[in-house]
Amino acid sequence: MANNVNIVINAQDKASQALGKVSKKTDDLTNKIRGMRMPLLAVTAAFGTLGAISIKNASALGESVNAINVVFKDSADAIHEFGKVASDEVGLSNNQFNKLATVTGSLLKDFGLSLGESAEQTIRLTKRASDLASVFDTDVSQAMNAINAAMRGETEAIRRYGVSFDDAALKTKAVSMGLAENTKEVTRSQKSLAA
After folding, report:
1. Dihedral of the CA atoms 84, 138, 162, 176 (nearest 10)?
2. DSSP-H helix ranges across 73-166
3. Pairwise CA distance, residues 46 & 61, whole Å
4. Are 96 and 103 in contact (CB under 8 A)?
5. Phi and psi at residue 35, in whole multiples of 5°?
6. What is the pLDDT of residues 48-77, one digit of tens each?
7. Which terminus of the chain has fewer CB atoms gathered within 10 Å of its CB, N or C?
8. What DSSP line would sit under 41-68, residue for residue?
């Protein structure tokens, strides 16, 4: 009987030791999980932020696409097609190009160009802005904004790119382009086109 009691006591001791080891491993695992909680929360937050940014960017692109449709109407397809390759062609995202094209196209339409001409010239001017940005080590958006300012008659920003013209030069250019018969007849819109 004593032998059976010793066997039971030994079995209890072994079970107690095994339970202690399991308890220690459980505690270690709990501590590791607690230690990982902050990084896991950070990763979760980062994914949440990326999701919010993606939604915001998709919304912004959708709005810029709509703006292109409003400004260019039947000629919007040419702008949309260039927008798809704007990243490779001129270093602008589709959304960035759309935003700039909306302003440029609006200006060109106001000067009397047709929708097709406005789309064509918008793409041409964006490529020119890319060239200017490359040569003068600036951002394409800045160069395009300077071009748009020049079309509005504001010449200060475009001077940064080595372009300088005065009223007489613009009138002469407008006449040489066939926009007016003589320099006295040149309108503001014609000067803007000459610019």
Report:
1. 10
2. 76-90, 94-110, 115-135, 140-151, 156-159
3. 22
4. no
5. -65, -30
6. 554 544 444 445 556 777 888 888 899 999
7. N
8. HHHHHHHHHHHHHHHHHHHHHHHHHHHH
- CA 2 to CA 109: how far, in whole Å? 107
- The list of the chain residues with pLDDT below 50 reads 50, 52-58
3-state secondary structure of 168: helix
CA 50 vs. chain centroid, Å, equals 15
Alpha carbons 147 and 122: distance in angstroms, whole number: 11
Tokens 């005065």 belong to 166
- Reported as a single tens digit per residue, the pLDDT across 96-110 is 989 999 999 999 998
Which residue is listed with tokens 């003068």? Answer: 136
Rounded Cα distance, 113 and 163, in Å: 23
125 touches 151 (CB < 8 A): no
Cβ atoms of 97 and 83 closer than 8 Å? yes
SS3 180: coil
User: Is residue 78 a contact partner of residue 119, using CB atoms and an 8 Å limit?
Assistant: yes
Structure tokens at 185: 């007849």
